[in-house]
Amino acid sequence: MQPVTPLRASRLVPQQRQVRVSFEFFPPKTAEMETTLWEAIGRLAPLQPSFVSVTYGAGGSTRERTHATVKRIIAETPLVPAAHLTCVAADRAEVDGVIRSYVAAGVRHIVALRGDPVGGIAERYAPHPRGYQNAADLVAGIKAIADIEVSVSAYPEKHPDSPSVEADIDMLQAKVDAGAGRAITQFFFDNDLYFRYLDRIRARGITIPIVPGILPVQNFKQMRLFAERCGTSVPAWLADRFAGLDADAATRRLIAAAVAAEQVMDLVDRGVTDFHFYTMNRADLVFAICHLLGVRAQEKVA
Ligand code: FAD
User: What single string gives the DSSP state of each residue in 245-276?
Assistant: First the structure.
């Protein structure tokens, strides 16, 4: 059995500590999923996140739905949306059209990504012949169209396509040089990996915020499959915590909350102030973790 680190009382966060959060949602496919998403947004909105981001399905498959979700957020909430955009499998004119339509709808923040090959990540990525070459090229394209905020991805355990961490950091540097103002990390479970990565980035002179992406584990089996595809390691202690709980959803949720709480409290103890949560369009776990972080609905704090 692996040793586990118990929650320490010293990890309690004073309310006045400046912790900022942002939330990621995905555009719903069905009316039922739409209801779930808007329930989650309704519950998390009072926490006043810095922004809420809406993903862009592989190869632009959710283009209209992403746009519709972002437009509704602008129209019906006080939240600041960040629209994701990928450049894979699309020519520049098409991608520029999406950027312009976002800007016309009032979007002032885009999360710029290369995206995965249409045939899946096992396929070798090749840029569209008339498209943006990579995420850095896309960042430059966005900045040429509108002077808006651009965030990009970062990979504490390196992207699977990258031959090395240094090559990965070269790409991050190129994205920063093109105008990216923030990076959001792929999810990870070993905080030491994040800090080691941060040290390497800072040593290279990259100063933008590298916001940790936190995935509360709503479904361990699904998460493990996803982690394999995107190069995130799943520590043995984490697998051990979920072992034997396949048929026990209620206990899995309690474990998920404890694991995520432990992770964010350790990050706070080590100086992290900004967190990006992969919500999977579910509010409860994220709401609870924000509560632990001292992030409260304003009317309840007063
Ligand atoms: P980049 O940062 O451009 O590249 C990642 C790494 O791959 C770099 O280190 C680079 O060196 C290497 N690399 C790039 N191209 C090549 C090449 N041709 N040959 C060799 N190495 C190469 N996907 C979606 O479809 N929609 C989303 O909304 C979405 N949101 C995301 C949000 C976050 C915060 C993160 C971390 C990922 C998200 N993704 C999303 C996944 C992302 O599209 C994939 O990880 C994709 O494979 C890489 O895109 P990128 O912009 O991160 O790549």
Answer: -TT-HHHHHHHHHHHHHHHHHHHHHTT--EEE
Q: Which long-range contacts (CB under 8 A, 24 or more apart) does 244-251 make?
A: 245/220, 246/221
Q: How far is the CA of 16 from the centre of ligand 1 (A)?
A: 36
CA distance 77 to 47: 13
Would residue 123 show up in a list of annotated catalytic residues for this protein?
Answer: no
Whole-prediction pTM value?
Answer: 0.94
Distance CA 302, CA 300 (A): 6
* pLDDT number for residue 87: 97
State whether the beta carbon of 297 lies less than 6 angstroms from ligand 1.
no
Query: Hey, what CATH class is 9-292 in?
Result: alpha beta
| Residues β-bridged to residue 200 | none
229: its two tokens: 């595809």
Query: Residue 92 in contact with residue 131, Cβ under 8 Å?
Result: yes
Which one of the listed residues 24, 149, 157, 262 is annotated catalytic? 24
Evaluate the CA torsion angle 35, 66, 181, 263 in order and state its sign. positive
| Degrees to nearest 5, angle at CA 116 with 233 and 184 | 55
- Give the residue-averaged pLDDT of 23-51: 97
